[in-house]
Amino acid sequence: xxxxxxxxxxxxxxxxxxxxxxxxxxxxxxxxxxxxxxxxxxxxxxxxxxxxxxxxxxxxxxxxxxxxxxxxxxxxxxxxxxxxxxxxxxxxxxxxxxxxxxxxxxxxxxxxxxxxxxxxxxxxxxxxxxxxxxxxxxxxxxxxxxxxxxxxxxxxxxxxxxxxxxxxxxxxxxxxxxxxxxxxxxxxxxxxxxxxxxxxxxxxxxxxxxxxxxxxxxxxxxxxxxxxxxxxxxxxxxxxxxxxxxxxxxxxxxxxxxxxxxxx
Length: 264
Prior knowledge:
Blueprint: H1 2-26, H2 53-57, H3 72-90, H4 98-123, H5 128-147, H6 152-176, H7 184-197, H8 200-223, H9 236-261
Helix pairs in contact: 1-3, 1-4, 3-4, 4-5, 4-9, 5-7, 6-7, 6-8, 7-9, 8-9
């Protein structure tokens, strides 16, 4: 039953993310304005806003102007729903007491992270209007974890180091390259993901995963000359994917690594 509820909520919030990022980019009121077709600007009816179902039933075209509706819409809805369910199934802590609150905050954080991912893919920008609230949520989540920690001092040190590792590495790259190799938004996102990681080892993990994923995507594009050395691709989505993996599976992956390769 919980999985079904999370699935439905994920689809609904995925639809919200699609509208939210467009309105933020266009400088529109994302709270009070009604949804509309981004091409003909016709106000959409309730039947046009059913996640995934509306897109499929309309065969990916606007009901009013018949122009194509980007496949981004159902993809974001399905991915958000999948992340909600995956987070519940794979949550690394027992969901009792304050962990329920932390999990709820994480779901809201996922909405923000998905919005950042979509925005960066489309416009190669990580807007402060999304990054800063997400960072605030991450700090609240970290504060709750610290409050329930058996050793406040060691946990606080681990969190501080995780934040410094997560954002510090990208800050150094940004300064050395004068912003040519990585953007300022990626630096802020690195600090955010470091807070969410909560431990320096997990920060290194999400950076490693992001670098590997970035290479997997960019190297074939370079080999086929769809990109050249002067081309830029958004790095934020890789950081976000790496961060989510680190939060949900970081401890298990690190334990596996130390057992297999270090014999610990």
